[in-house]
């Protein structure tokens, strides 16, 4: 079953990217999805990740869960190395600055509750699978 889910996520991202954002914003289970465009910290190559997102004031929120893996997702490392990234919502691209918010940081509990609700409780389940604190990444538009 996990392989089927991973395949569904990849197909969703492919549709989102190939349609230029015309399709994909709410394609997967109705969840709001953005495309996060980063640059690979080692390769220097452009990378794109489809991520469930929420809003907190002016910021977009995404969660570096990687399904509860012991290691954070590659996109988290990429935005950590260069926080000037692009968030695409539908067909609109926003230049944003990314910052990680961890447990104990100001606003984390509020952001976590908001994102966990959007993702129907799955982030709490992912946190149970790993001892690493799962970061929330706040994306602040610069344009």
UniProtKB/TrEMBL annotation:
InterPro entries reported in the protein's UniProt record: F420H2_quin_Rdtase, Split_barrel_FMN-bd
Ranges in a coiled coil: none
Known catalytic reactions: oxidized coenzyme F420-(gamma-L-Glu)(n) + a quinol + H(+) = reduced coenzyme F420-(gamma-L-Glu)(n) + a quinone
Stated family: Belongs to the F420H(2)-dependent quinone reductase family.
Name of the protein described by the UniProt record: Nitroreductase family deazaflavin-dependent oxidoreductase
């Amino acid at each position: 079953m996990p392989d089927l889910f991973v395949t569904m996520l990849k197909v969703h991202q492919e549709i989102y990217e190939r349609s230029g954002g015309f399709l994909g914003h709410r394609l997967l289970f109705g969840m709001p999805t953005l495309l996060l465009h980063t640059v690979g910290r080692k390769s220097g190559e452009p990378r794109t990740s489809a991520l469930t997102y929420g809003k907190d004031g002016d910021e977009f929120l995404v969660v570096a869960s990687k399904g509860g893996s012991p290691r954070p997702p590659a996109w988290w490392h990429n935005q950590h190395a260069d926080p000037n990234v692009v968030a695409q919502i539908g067909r609109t691209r926003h230049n944003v600055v990314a910052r990680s918010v961890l447990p104990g940081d100001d606003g984390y509990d509020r952001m976590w509750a908001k994102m966990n609700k959007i993702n129907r409780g799955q982030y709490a389940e992912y946190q149970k699978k790993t001892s690493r604190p799962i970061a929330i990444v706040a994306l602040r538009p610069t344009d």
